[in-house]
Amino acid sequence: MGNLVCYAVVTPGLEALAADELNELAAHDVKTEAGGVSFTTTMDGLFRINLRSRICTRILLRLASFRALSFPELYNKSRKTAWEHYIDPHTAISVRASCSGSKLMHSGRAEQALADAIRDRLGFDTKGAIDAEDGEQQILLRIDNNRCTISLDSSGERLDRRGYRLHSGKAPLRETIAAAILRWAEWQREEPLLCPMCGSGTFAIEAAWLATKRAPGLDHVFPFASWPSLKEKRWQRARSKAEAMQQGEIQACIVASELDSAILAQAKENASTAGVGGIICFEQRDVRTLTVPKQCETAGVIVCNPPYGNRVKGNVLSLYRALGRQFKEQFSDWRMTVIVPDKQCEKALGLQVKKQLKFRHGGKWVRLLCVDNHGN
Ligand SMILES: C[S@@+](CC[C@H](N)C(=O)[O-])C[C@H]1O[C@@H](n2cnc3c(N)ncnc32)[C@H](O)[C@@H]1O
Q1: Is the dihedral angle over the CA atoms 58, 62, 66, 69 positive or is it negative?
Q2: Does the beta carbon of 303 lie inside 6 Å of ligand 1?
Q3: Does the pLDDT at position 183 exceed 90?
Q4: 307: Cβ below 6 Å to ligand 1?
């Protein structure tokens, strides 16, 4: 297999950050689209990106793209794909189709035509149902404007499910979003990082993984590991390289604080599951009394996801007000990145915004604000 055409599914709003990361991971032809990033790579690159991307939700491998105006045409063209490279008799597959603006608008029939083509090409009955959510190998068919695009999901479970978050607290951030925010905040691993209102500890744990160069996908189960075409040695080499990057000892000062002692205990447990319990300092603290932690020797970065919206009640504006006040009074030369759901919260924060970014979180668009304490 030569150059692979791929598509990274990404949280809307974070496409440019994912594109930067994909460039760093040596992807080619990287182009952002709404909700994703297209790129090309090699099979080694596909392994590397799945193991090491912190921001992408999943990586799809584009297998075929063709026009089809009838179900027999869809069947015939789908059968030309070398399915035997990807599916063996033991793999449970699921086929999902979505149709828009096309002659073929019945997604169920489209799934059936594709499933029949795969079965007939392989010469054996594939395991699993065509509409199952949980096939080990997901096959996606998009029919848009009469163009059919067939993709294979190379990631399996979403890549944000790192496996360390045994407890999720209230309104947790996806791990991929937390990692993207750290990149956007331009946090450097030598800089102190403070995560007030830490909830399940996602920012702090992602930061600790970044600082220790822990590849987020090391414990992930990838469907490509059972592709008949897999070059096992190459896959093991990609894994070993990712493992070898990891560093045990680091200088980073990462502090996570939270008001609720039960939630704080859960964050600590999540951190030890992630193998970084000894790196993060946890403190029970009300954000209204936030000061520079004693262990921070230089100015650093605050990242914060305060409670807001329907899921979390309480006097949200007063929390933003307190956060803005503490930052202004206590954190000379620090930078802060904070999520705000609306203008009211931004106003309550009362700080001059240096840059901002819109992204989707919890089913709505929210904004990230970056402020510093030089000009405020
Ligand atoms: C939206 S959650 C943070 C979620 C977190 N980013 C995660 O991924 O789990 C907000 C957190 O702020 C905490 N909190 C609420 N009021 C607080 C206060 N006055 N001081 C400190 N923490 C507070 C809540 O207990 C909750 O865990």
Answers
A1: negative
A2: no
A3: yes
A4: yes
Out of 290-299, 306-315, 344-353, least confident range: 306-315
Pick the atom of ligand 1 nearest to 319's CA. Answer: 19
Q: Pick the range with the lowest mean pLDDT from 27-36, 126-135, 320-329.
A: 126-135
* pTM higher than the cut 0.85: yes
Candidate CATH numbers 3.40.50.12780, 3.40.50.150, 3.40.50.300, 2.60.15.10; the one for domain 175-214+223-372: 3.40.50.150
134 burial type by CB count under 10 A (0-12 exposed, 13-18 middle, 19+ buried): exposed
Cα of 35 vs centre of ligand 1, distance in Å, is 28
- Biggest CA–CA distance in the chain, Å, is 71
CATH code that applies to domain 4-153: 3.30.2130.30
CB distance 265 to ligand 1 below 6 Å? no
Which atom belonging to ligand 1 lies closest to the Cα atom of 173? 8
Pairing, β 93-100 against β 137-144: parallel
Ligand 1 pocket residue status of 200, Cβ below 6 Å: yes
Does residue 173's CB lie within 6 angstroms of at least one atom of ligand 1? yes
The domain ranges of the chain are 4-153, 175-214+223-372
- Pocket perturbation via mutation, ligand 1, pick of 198, 266, 359 by most ligand atoms within 8 A of CB: 198
- Does the beta carbon of 199 sit less than 6 angstroms from any atom of ligand 1? yes
Ligand 1 site, residue 171, Cβ cutoff 6 A: yes
Q: Is the pLDDT of residue 333 over 80?
A: yes
> Per-residue confidence at 131, pLDDT binned at 50, 70, 90?
low
Q: What is the dihedral of CA 72, 77, 79, 83, to 10 degrees?
A: -140
